[in-house]
Amino acid sequence: MTEATEATGRDSLGGQGSVLLGPVRLAIGLTQGLGLYGLHRLSDGAASWGATHPLVFGPLLLILAFLPLVLLAGVGRLRPATLAIWTVVAGAVLALLGLHDIARQSADTLQGPPFLSPPLILFSAAALFIAHHLVAPADMERRRIASYPAYFDTATKAAVQLALSIGFTGAFWILLYLGAALFRIINLEFLENLLREAWFAIPVTFLVFATAVHLTDVRDGLIRGVRTLALMLLSWLLLVITVLVAGFLAALPFTGLGGLWETGSGVSLVLAAAAALIILINAAYQDGQPDNRPPAVLRAAVRVAAVLITPLIVIAAWGLALRIGQYGLTPDRIIAAACALVGASFAAGYGWAALSPFWRKGDWMRPLERTTIWTAVLTVAVILALFSPLLDPARLSVADQVARLERGAVTPDKFDYRFLRFESGKAGQAALARLTQSDNADIAARATTAKVVRNRYDFEGTPDGPRSRTEPTAADIRIHANPAGAALPATFTQQFGRLSEILSGCRDGSVCEARMHDLDRDGALEVLVAAESSVSVFKLEADGRWFEWAEYTPPLCVDESKDIRRAFGAGRWGTVPPVFPDLVVDGVRLRHLEGETECPPEPDLAEAAEPRVIVGGEEHGRLTHR
What's the farthest any 2 CA atoms get from each other in the chain? Predict the structure, then answer.
């Protein structure tokens, strides 16, 4: 941003702008901190307001997290009317993005607070930063499209301010914890306890951040000095990445691309290399003014690097096309394709700028400026499309994957039903429900199985592709007659779905051994289930639900090949009193953990309250009680 532009921006608050700027920014930071603390309180607990109103909580969180940053960056720089309009527009867009992100998720994909998907948070922050630094220079120069130096100066100064403000906030907290440690060594813990309180930590963090933004803003010379140094260092790194990328591309005819695709992240690596070239080219070019033109060696590196972007984008697009052709669309591949599209725009414009002197006269790399501005607009548009119903990656991926299944491009046994069930929101679950009605009996059966799976990890990969694992059934747990005629309670077997994670060793042909025994002598029988290397104890609660109260595992000295399950089923088991009793401290019962490295002598089996379990002559320590 030029000095004239800087002055124009600073006059936007009127005659008392310089006086009011600091208090206004501090008020914005404090308000943001208090708002986020309020959301933190509202999201505390499974039955909290936030958990029961995700469609309101998510957009509100997105607004409180990012919109105050727009105000911090705009106040004192944008005209009040422009700032008000831009704030309303940005807030509405953030709210709509958050609302769509949560509305498209299903009950299985919607996690706890903040409910928002990580890609949305990352890309919405990027879009907001880019959009703000398209609006601000235009308003400062009173033009729809500002000059390139204004865009460059505003964006780079904001990036330096952001980095310094984050560093200042981090240093502030380091000093607070240092002070708390000093007080603690003299037995004063009030500061340490205060730092743990969310009502203090969250508002103070954002108040300090706002303070840092204001301090860095009023010391404009300091920011410019730091920016100049950073750009100089980055521009010389352009030589390094240019040599590396050129060497990589030169070696490809001899090595081929097989090794790149085998990594599974080849497209991401190539796109990252292209992004590094774009960033470092801009660091060397700066605002394009003759006074800031880099040395001849860097000018040559800029031209070469600008040309190298094109083959990188071609390789990335080729890799994406191969993966999509083989395995179809996924949300990650759609986002990568969007990044490749933006990269292609940079590649075309920067390549033209690098080669243009050969057939036209003009300033050095001047077409780069128009390319950067219009590609920034394209980037914002692509992000908004990706995280709206227009180009929703989950919806597009589901449609493509199901189409591949229905036309036979993928066989039913290799189709990824887990993606529909747990990873693609409502669109995936709706598609899975349609597949259960498929005319293809194999597809319908597998979709029906996937639909009732309760845990996303209850899918196993096989050489033939993913297959779903169902919850254990009564046939997977063999009950022994103890007492005579005993059977697993119906209330227990009906809750296999709830207990499927604990009973994971009791399915897929691995039958567990079960007995019923009153271990704690309260008059009610517990269910003891022995897997290959452990015994779990399940107890019926007053609300009718069964819970795992204890898990018995052998000490380290026991041979791992010993089958605990077989010995338990054969009746070679009993109970002995614990080596150490539980402790009661201030009315609280403390359970003990037994970790023995040497096996004790075999004890006599005996009945005892809260016993240890002996299976096959080996003692099993009671490790946990729930």
Answer: 99
